[in-house]
Amino acid sequence: MSVSSAIPFDVTKAWVQTKFQWQRQITAARFSPCGRFVFAAGINGAIIRWDLETEQQVLFESHDTWVGDFAFDSESKRMYSGDYHGTLTCWDYSLDQPKQIWQKVGSHNGWIRKVTVSPDGSRIATGGNDLSVRIWNAKGKSTDQLEGHQGYIFSLIFHPETGDIFSGDQLGMVRQWNKKGNLIREFDLSVLHTRLDNFLAHVGGVRCMAIDTTRNLLACGGFTNAKSNSFCPGDPLISIIDLESATEVIQLKPTIKADGPINGIRFLSDGTLVGVGEGQAGASLSFWDVEKSEPIHAIKMLSGYEVDVHPDGMRLAVSRYETNGRTGNGRHVMPEEYVSNDGLVEVYQLSEKPMEDADS
Prior knowledge:
Layout: E1 15-22, E2 26-31, E3 37-42, E4 46-51, E5 57-61, E6 67-73, E7 78-83, E8 88-92, E9 99-104, E10 112-117, E11 124-128, E12 133-136, E13 142-146, E14 153-158, E15 165-169, E16 173-177, E17 183-188, E18 193-194, E19 203-204, E20 208-212, E21 217-224, E22 235-242, E23 247-252, E24 262-267, E25 273-277, E26 283-288, E27 297-301, E28 304-309, E29 315-322, E30 342-349
Antiparallel strand pairs: 1-30, 2-3, 3-4, 4-5, 6-7, 7-8, 8-9, 10-11, 11-12, 12-13, 14-15, 15-16, 16-17, 18-19, 20-21, 21-22, 22-23, 24-25, 25-26, 26-27, 28-29, 29-30
């Protein structure tokens, strides 16, 4: 499934090149830095690796609960994964058979929701339900703990050039930290948070972030105007922040009907922002010129959870769920039986579909 560099890049012609299916719902999806593999994290604790050429499937099994997130260091060929019991695991992802290098049980008090690796591979940052961002070195030693968030950590990224950490939480607050762990500034994204008087819990939060270094922009995804705690319907939204002025410059919204959050966003090489969301009413994979509020192209789909860009810049991996045909997530057929929705990773090609594939 290689891609010719001569194929013209065109997001408006995006099409599904291949699909990888898993028998449980999956959340995060990532391409490996080498470009050979696509990975996905399952709610049954497995991390699944597929070879993009041969479609061979290999399981990374160590976690005994949902894997919240995972991230790669390109130089060392390491992958770091965190789960809902607070366990952080380091792997060599490149071998024919998975090799666990180290594991830290109790690295967080409860869920690890996000894992990210610094541009130079020297720092691993994790965040979750204990309200803290924790920093680790490549050997698994804790080197810092960043405190101050009042809500669960939903999103976490390193700035590709400065190495600063941006952490986004459930209440719509984004914090920027320097390499020494000092808080530089805060961004108020409370537009992505709702808590009405009749709500039993907070709804929303900064679900995802991405940085465009060329224009010094921070994109923050989620949803606004939540209507209730039941299935949490609301209006999907991306807020674009100018990092120099620390002000919001535009809000981006899907045009395909949806009522759930934007869960994953990435900037493409030409500055286009791609985002995927979920919802009971439907969802989409949408592409924006960030100077315009409406997308330049959108593809209707079932709920999506993550999007990633291949190192060649011409492909996307999108993780989403595949319904099992029942209402609800695996409604019982018999009292002792529970059937989960399936998971799906779709690999999109960002170019016109070749003639030989046009009828497939």
